[in-house]
Please model this.
Amino acid sequence: MQIIRPTNLLHAALMRSALFLVAIAMPVSAYAIHFGPEHSDPIAAVILGVTSILFFAILGRFAARKLRQPSVLGELLMGVILGNLGYYFGSDLIILLRQGPEIFDIFQLTMTGQTMEEAAIACISGGGVATILDVLQGPHSLELVQMAHAVDVFSRYGVIFLLFLVGLDTSLDEMRQVGRNSMQVAISGMLLPFILGFVTIRTFMPELSLNTDLFIGATLGATSVGITARVLQDINKQKSTEARLILGAAVIDDILGLLMLSIVSGIVVSGGVEIAEILLVILLATVFLAGAVLIGPYFLRIVVRYLCNLDIVEAKMFTSYFFVMVLAWMANLVGLATIVGAFTAGLVLQESYFKNCRIIPNKPYTIKDLIMPLEVILVPIFFVLMGIQVKLETFLDPQVILAAGGLLFAAVIGKVAAGYFAGKSANRLAVGFGMMPRGEVGLLFAAIGKTLGVIDDYLFSVIVLMVIVTTLIAPPLLKATMQHVDTRTGKT
Model:
């Protein structure tokens, strides 16, 4: 008698489900990408394009959950597959999405009097100019650019809400209590990968600019607290000493990473490494964060006082949306990334501001409960878009492969070494592994670097590969090193 193993059943169910979803997705995506008859409503093509991208994101998330992997990996890999297959088969929409923000730069240059050809040559590095021009000069170029722009805008909104929720989960009081060891792990976990990444890319690609080297180093210093927290919860070790150290360090690492991103972005924008410029960026970031933390509560109390006359759900939604968008805009106004403002908004806004509002018994929704649906829809679009922009053909270059291997080594060693600052009482190796996954934070840094023009297609693909590998290997390594940790005492 044949014995059917559970793993075989899982794989069979996964394959059947995936084939079913693909069978549904193919006609929808094909129509969205190649178009059918002319639409009477110009927004119809945009709706169909964005929805198709979201559908593939759901497919990737579904596959990742079935394989017990983080959702971000499924969405990212689905984007990689979609982007490279779509480019190979000549999908016009995928060709534009794959190129990224350079498409919009081309149109901006044409408004200054340049021809489409001149603008494309000026904006697009490497090959593919002829292919891009064929799409931009085709009969459906306007609809395609509208679709690409809509996907880009939705993904940027997704990033803002993602960092807002990370801020909501961050407590200033808890950060003060994490202790010296978490602070040491956070600082070393930011500086060691930064230094190793800078030296590695300088060694393998000495022709790159100093700004590019600095940005790559900053990207390697990122940590994804969400993925590690999920692993610790799965193995019921969230109360251990290592868990408190990892989560405390990861939260501090987020703030240090955003500060580092602001400094490096300021250097890129100013055009050079000058002490005065660096000090100015640090001052602006410090003033912005301090001002938001100190002045933000007064602003929120005034807004909530008036909005509490509405339904509690409306009050929380309007206040949250207004506050996060204002701080994101203000962060950009002073030269910082919008995600710094979004994170700060989440850090400041708390449930306690609504304690005097009229509570409806049947609607005990928290701010996180209300914002989560926006994040669930918009964030996957960002991850799929990042995957679409990974050009696998770049790895045909031996220099790129060497750089990828070197950066991956630096990314792993830098975080593992940081774990040795956790103190003698903790499992240092587990702390290092817990800090290793870059996840969504590393992708955010890479996306900003590409927007600023300091990270090209080759380096973007290398960074995404680093994000994928570190996010894949960290959970099993963390589980293996944490299996002997006592949940009650936190000791091995």
